[in-house]
DNA sequence: CGATTATGTAACGCCAGTTGTTACATATGG
DNA sequence: CCATATGTAACAACTGGCGTTACATAATCG
């Protein structure tokens, strides 16, 4: 969904867009979008102004924003299972496995982000446009 | 948690272990473990017998089981955000973006799994043992 | 054979996280 | 000063996963 919002922003090249408009586009509530924009602001991906005639716009050109950045800005939690908040008991394995798994999963997540880095927001826009065009052609 | 259970099984090299024992080790309920074991059975990772004196054991040596297999056996859902089951509206972006994002995320997930493939269950056991030993040394 | 043991499975409650909604304070521009 | 749009809080609704109880089924042992 974050990517979706940013894609719309990229679509409107530089124009300020209100959260209400974005919400309509993603088919959700303006507040949801605003909450999302807060994360994106923290990551310096968008630039938001308050007041009349204001709204948000991209802070960088779409070609210089990659999906890994968006992912990191939005997803703060690990994609893996909650470590089952129980610290485990007297099992010989339970004691030390958590730390090891964290290491391994961190590495896997890094691998995933490296893959996401290869795609820029501009790439997404381009692909979407192409996909829409071909669909229209039919 | 799946890895934890399998690690315990690997620890008990070949012995059949009951779900009750595993549950105690992971500090949870036997039924939870059984549900997990069902997934692992489907993936042919464990071999479970019913009846008295029965239980589960690994179907392969720990060195020949990698974490990507476990991940695939257990996690059936995408690690990414639910595609917000709403099919979106008349927004020009909304129409085609879902498909594109699916492609990209699939690729990222593949990258993650490729990373997980590099670690076998035996590696995890080894690391855990080493970690426990060093902790004991202190 | 029958008792015991352990899995398979369903039904249900519980809890946490996410989404959605309403409401209101605040800032900005005209 | 007023209209507009964000920031934020409070709360309802929904969802997914975990936990628990309960019961049927299967396999082993005496």
Structure in words:
- The structure is a homodimer of 138-residue chains.
- Chain A is mainly alpha-helical.
- Helix content of chain A is 58%, strand content 6%.
- The first copy, chain A, is built from six helices and two strands; from the N terminus they run αααββααα.
- The first copy, chain A, has helices spanning 2-11, 19-26, 30-42, 67-74, 94-117, 121-137, and strands spanning 46-49, 55-58.
- Chain A has a two-stranded antiparallel sheet with strand order 1-2.
- In chain A, strand 1 and strand 2 form a beta hairpin.
- The model of chain A has no long low-confidence stretch (mean pLDDT 85).
Count of DSSP-assigned helices of chain A: 6
- In the sheet with the most strands of chain A, the strands line up as 1-2
Distance between the termini of chain A: 27 Å
Low-confidence parts of chain A:
none
Largest sheet of chain A: 2 strands, antiparallel
Radius of gyration of chain A: 19 Å
State the order of secondary-structure elements of chain A, H for helix, E for strand: HHHEEHHH
Q: What global shape of chain A is seen?
A: globular
What's the number of extended β-strand segments of chain A? 2
Structural class of chain A: mainly alpha
Helix percentage of chain A: 55-70%
Oligomeric assembly: homodimer
**Strand content bin of chain A:** 5-15%
Q: List the chains of the largest interface with their residue counts.
A: A-B, 48 and 49 residues
The average pLDDT value of chain A, as a whole number, equals 85
């Amino acid at each position: 969904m974050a990517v979706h919002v940013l894609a719309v922003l990229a679509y409107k090249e530089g124009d300020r867009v209100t959260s209400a408009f974005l919400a309509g586009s993603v088919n959700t509530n303006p507040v949801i979008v605003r909450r999302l924009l807060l994360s994106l602001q923290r990551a310096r991906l968008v630039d938001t102004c308050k007041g009349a005639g204001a709204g948000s716009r991209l802070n960088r050109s779409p070609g210089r924003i990659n999906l890994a950045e968006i992912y990191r800005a939005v997803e703060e939690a690990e994609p893996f299972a909650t470590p089952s908040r129980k610290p485990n008991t007297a099992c010989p394995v339970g004691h030390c496995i958590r730390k090891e798994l964290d290491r391994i999963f961190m590495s896997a997540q890094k691998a995933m982000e490296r893959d996401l880095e290869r795609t820029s927001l501009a790439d997404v826009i381009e692909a979407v446009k192409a996909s829409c065009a071909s669909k229209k052609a039919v």
